[in-house]
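for the writeup, i need someone to sanity check this before i put it in the appendix. the sequnce is what the collaborator sent (i think, or maybe the updated version? ugh). structure was predicted straight from it, no edits. if anything looks off just tell me and ill rerun, i have time this weekend
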Amino acid sequence: YQLPSEPGHPYPIDVWYRIWFEAAYLPPALELVVDGFAAEYHEVYLNGSPVDGPAHRSRIDSQMQRLDLTPLARTGENMLSVRLRVTKPTDGLLDSVKITGDFALEEKGGGEYRIVAPREAVKPSSWTSQGYPFYSGRGVYRSTFTVPADAERKRAILSPAMVDDVLEVVISGIRAGVRLWAPYDVEITELVKLGENVLELRVANTLINLLEAVPRVSGLSGAPRIAMYEQFDLEFSALLATAD
């Protein structure tokens, strides 16, 4: 993102960065997050108009700033421009800029995407391939299941299909456990009841999807499984200790 070569005239010089993005849907709020830049002066434009609103602290990092793009965004093609007045070769944008909001992405092919309406529901698989390739945060999978009467004295073990993220399991509003890595199995015997139960799997991934624009597989990798096991009470009248 910094200057690829020495300019043909002395510093300071103005450098323009431009990128186009397509929006088939406009969310209620659309913000630009600037990760970092080095320059003595900067301006931001959307579709040829200056983004004049004040910069606010980003929710991602206190050193990042966010600008409101909502009034200038439009359906169809949008052009985002950043003008920097740089004073040395190492000045310029220091990282990718990010556009955030309540929307999903639809792949156009060739690694390009368009902004579309957010998904109302996702399948029990990675959200990366369901419209959120660059989302970093928490996703909640929610469903109901029924425990039959013949399972009253059985142990219940939940086995989520997970790859690498952090998992929190909630049964009917009560936390059953948190798992940071495999194995992700959680015993839910004491929380389930006969009849209908509500299962929530809250999955949090890393920041690499958003900060580095890497569509790292995130969320569930398949449907969860609940296994029911018989319980046995064993009594030992005597124990014999032997020495090896």
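The chain has one helix and 19 strands. The CA atoms of residues 4 and 234 lie 74 Å apart.
thx in advance!!
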